Amino acid sequence: MQKIIFFDIDGTIWDNRMNIPESTVWTIQKLKEKGYKTFICSGRGRANIRSPKLLSLGFDGIIAACGNHIEMDGKVLYQNLLSQELVQKALGLLEANRMPVILEGPVYHWTDEDAFADDPFVEIIRKEMGEYLVPITGYGKDYVINKFSADIMPDSNFEAVRKELEDEMDFLVHPGDKFQVVEFIPKGTSKATGIHKLCEMLGVDVKDTYALGDSVNDLDMIEAVGHGIAMGNGTKQIKEIAEYVTAPLHEDGVKQAMEHYGLIL
């Protein structure tokens, strides 16, 4: 009977310095040896899942952009792209309401880095993506994207943007100390819809699926699978809905979870 294990990236596979515990590397290899399928399931756009350290773990596939990009064995199985009309509408709204944006696609991301002076994450993205992070200003071509994210700054008017886009997009707001980040996701899509679509494609019963996550954009994934697992370093909210709470990332949390379910010995 085929089983699939889905892994969030940040806070689950690696920490904020991209350190992956050796026990996690070992566990993913053991899962593969057992014949189980392993997938990254991330809110990141596919273009921002490119670290050799991460991809060398040998995942069978990737669900990216909150379910709007699915690939397996290097082949794209599903792709949901935003229309150019919607992208241009969103760019105008975000600029008018002082919300710096990153457009997230399967090959490239677009942003104007100068607009993110207070956000260190953009510098991390720039180092990670290199030439695949392209300026919005002066681009002048079609933006091939699945979703986008923006900062809610002290002088931003997010409610005005929300009102104009609520018929077309869903919103995931991530709290922060200085500002919030909001992910704009095509209406009715999520990590959960991506998981269900993949299961349909592969003929796998959802009850034979497992997912590990730690934060707000993992909630739907944890609820969608047969066995939802919260990392010990995860938020209170995700721990409350998980079937099982494992140890923190650096205390062999991934290994402990897979042992708990008898997937590795």
UniProtKB/TrEMBL annotation:
Presence of the UniProt keyword Hydrolase in the record: yes
Pfam families noted in UniProt: Hydrolase_3
SUPFAM superfamilies: HAD-like
GO CC list: cytosol
GO MF terms held by the record: magnesium ion binding; phosphatase activity
Tree of life domain: Bacteria
Record has Protein biosynthesis as a keyword: no
UniProt keywords, alphabetically: Hydrolase
Annotated Gene3D superfamilies: 3.30.1240.10, HAD superfamily/HAD-like
NCBIfam families per the UniProt record, alphabetical: Cof-subfamily, HAD-SF-IIB
Protein name (Swiss-Prot/TrEMBL): Cof-type HAD-IIB family hydrolase
Taxonomic source organism: Roseburia porci
Lineage: Bacteria, Bacillati, Bacillota, Clostridia, Lachnospirales
